[in-house]
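Section 3.1: Structural characterization of target chains.
Under the original work plan, the team committed to producing a structural model for every single-chain target entering the pipeline before any wet-lab resources were allocated. The record below documents one such target. The sequence was received from the expression subgroup and is listed exactly as submitted; it comprises 693 residues.
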Amino acid sequence: MIRQIEFWEDRDRQMGADLETSIILGDQAEEFAAMLSPHVHQPYFGSLKVRVAGREQTLYVGKHGFRDVKGPHTVVSWDSEVGSLFYSQALGWTPRRGSAGVIRRRRQLDVSQKTLLRVTDLYDDEQGGDTGGREEVLLRRLQEGSTAGMRDVVETLQPEQNDAMRHPAGVPVIIQGAAGSGKTTIGFHRLAWMTSPERGAHRARPEACMVLMPNRVLATYAARILPELGIERVVVTTPEAWATGLLGLEKLEVTDRTLSLLLTDRDNTRRALAWRKAKLLGDARMLDVVRTHLWNRFNAALAGQGLRESVALRGREDQVFTLDEAALADLLRDVFAADPLDGYRAGMRRAIEALALSTLNVPEDEEASVRRQLSSPLTNLLGRIFATTTPITEARRLLGSPAELAASGLLTEREIALLGTDPLSGIPTPRRAHADVTELPLMLAVQAFTGGIGRLDGRTLEPFDHVVLDEAQDYSPLLYALLGRATRPGHITALGDMNQGMHGYKGPSSWEAVQAQLPGAQVLTLGRTYRSTRQITELGARIAATYNRAAAVQGVDRDGAEVQRYTAPAGPDGELPLIARAVKDAQAAGHTNIAIVTRRGVDADRMAEALREFDTDAQPITTQEHRFRGGLVILPVNLAKGLEFSAAIVASANADTYDESTEYERRLLYVSASRALHWLALVSTGELHPLIA
């Protein structure tokens, strides 16, 4: 590998027929050298002894494929079809071309800094088959502490994870898995797998892919692994940032007042009303409610409209192109039926231009000239029909009109009345321009129909090649329908856990509701959780069992410290001395990445300041602008979701903070208690929550 890099970096050897060709060849060679260089220190992590057509050979598996052009030293990439054999339980395979093969041995090779540190046989037919080495390697890796980035699992993909990652390209897939089952990393590895040339027509270009993460803290945290997987320029963002960018309203402040109400209000009637309204706003039926509303709006705007324009053509007298109101209505009907990706306005322009070219019998070489002549009058006409329709004003106009909500016939009178209520009136709103997160899908629907939805490449709107959705249980069915329009058919990977539906007010009630919006989508379930020790996993399962979804998740049999419980009678300092003691105990146990998880953001801010009096300096992460850089942090449960830490401390882990009678509160407690890899502490003044006492 070093010799190959030296060859590529030697400009004198990259010679072409002329200077320009030589420069291009030299630049390409330097790119190849730069791609290969990081892998010299760990060129492979596994080997396969295989028997094909009577011959035995050893294949090496690494993060980067490498072919030795002058010798036998070849490494196959982990994401290739051959590389898949390293993770699979299968003992034979039949290639597209050539003879069938049999695997004689699988072997894990720990290599670092060009040094072989350890050899572990995973399977050896001469030693009786399965050696138990795969579990041994996994446990060894899971014992490692957390870092400020996401784990790279290429070397230790388990068979069920590998199967999910390599689910057939071109088929939408929903990967359901408990906290710590590796959903997010599997989704990222699947995206890398999708960019391989082996995917053929389904191959995804990295720059045409998008990953949606639930918040900016997690987006920044997760994006660091993508370059390590060999894919650059993938857009990693949040649904809110993507939506406001598409709407051209990047400075719009996005609020989540429903979450604020759920986290602060003790009135269960008001909370239930806010939950139901948010659910209805994200209902997939709203797509057709919006479509019907726009149909009525645009048809009304056609009244009295028409077009009469003189067009100059070479060798002929000027021709007059005329459109009356009836002809415009017919074109609008055709455009609605075609439902173009770039929206009705662009579709209407194309339809009128096509009719003009056909009616006037315009030669091909004069089509551009005719389009230029019609450009200004067409823009004026379309402005009169469509210009008053902006996503924010139109979505709010629709919600404020019971008659328009009823026009589609899809909503009941009770649902229309619900949309007219305001259970969030007690939650403050920003002074500047804002939109609530529950309104955004409705605004995106208006944008999709009027201005289009997808990936902007210059001025061209095209579908994304592939989209990965993390925390997929928090995306509304309406948003799934819109993402389905914005992406190539079959190219959505959704990663979620119905157990962790903290934002269930804007998510689906079941995966079946998502499958209804993504035709052909299949649900795969990851049956094991790898994050935590047996003690922490059992505690989380006990909480999850109370709302009876996938509670029988199997953890890795990795023993660890008992869950630590810190309680004391209420005192002047509250639980601060207990938390400070828990931090010191976690540090004494050798942990450096430690999280103190609170119920609300305001609790984290207050506690971070107060803990300094107890010689404990925790970095507060209370908004999406904060970045997680490792060390001791304090953050609310809604921002902790998706992150993992060597040690976690759940503050105020009692029934006063997490209402035992409310399913939503038990979900929050489950998320809080499932952040730790190795060491978990539960802290409370007074009694701990009954589920964790």
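The chain has a mean pLDDT of 89.
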